[in-house]
Amino acid sequence: MPCSSHGQRRAEGRGNGRRGSPPPVPRVPTRARPSSVRRTTRGRSRERHREHRPPRLPLPPRPLATGSVAPDPHTACACCGRVRGLVYAGPVYTAADEDLRGRLCPWCIADGSAAERYDASFCGVVAGDVPEAVLTAVGRRTPGFSAWQESVWLSHCGDAAAFLGPVGSAELAAYPEAVDALRREAVAWQWSADEIERYLGSFDREGQPTAYLFRCRVCDAHLAYSDFT
User: Fold this and answer.
1) Whole-angstrom distance, CA of residue 89 vs CA of residue 184
2) CB-based contacts of 176-184 (< 8 A; 24+ apart in sequence)
3) What is the C-alpha to C-alpha distance for residues 120 and 207, in angstroms, rounded to an integer?
4) Where are the domains of the chain?
5) Nearest Cα to Cα of residue 163 among 214, 122, 127
């Protein structure tokens, strides 16, 4: 009897476990997420990263470094209405009553929508003999830059040059071709040799006079012009 009773209790115990206990719940690792969620998260991360990088702009190849584009995590673009993390910081030439400086994103400038909506341009003058298509690309689809006077976009080899930024005398020392261009500019003003050399040594990126450095996109020659008030 004891053996039979012990066996019966074991059988009852197993029976009660199968019928009375809830079915086991498979354990899911807390870090595991469906692949679709992971793909969505990665996509959003890439999109946020792209939002804080300016669009491809061949004429100012480094618009953040030149000051043409500036970080701004709060301002919504007046053209597209989106907060893109970057705003255009240069001049806007338009007949519109609305003040657009610092309120346009570089994407709306690059695709031409800002110029079309506000009949705007972003460069004062394009120097040299270039095709009409180049004038349009520089004036209406390229972030310009601030200067002490009206900005001038240089050209070379029949095409618009790439703007490398405002520079001082120390930075210019690495570009003798650009220094020679500035010397010829001052000679045309009929300055004496001593005045010209003092002027070439006085450029200041943040103050004035300031030099503006460009590079030819055809032959890679460096060129520059200067201005002051």
Assistant:
1) 30
2) 177/221, 177/222, 177/223, 178/211, 178/213, 178/214, 178/222, 178/223, 178/224, 179/224, 181/223, 181/224, 181/225, 182/211, 182/224, 182/225, 182/226
3) 28
4) 49-153, 159-229
5) 214
What b-and-e string marks burial along 183-207, b requiring 16 or more CB atoms within 10 Å of the CB?
eebbeeeeeeeeebeebbeebebee
DSSP 148: S
pLDDT (tens digit per residue) in 194-224:
999 999 999 999 999 999 999 999 999 999 9
Distance, in Å, from the CA atom of 140 to the CA atom of 99, rounded to the nearest integer, reads 17
pLDDT per residue as tens digits for the range 62-91: 899 999 999 999 999 999 999 999 999 999
pTM, to two decimals: 0.76
Structure tokens of 85? 């993390």
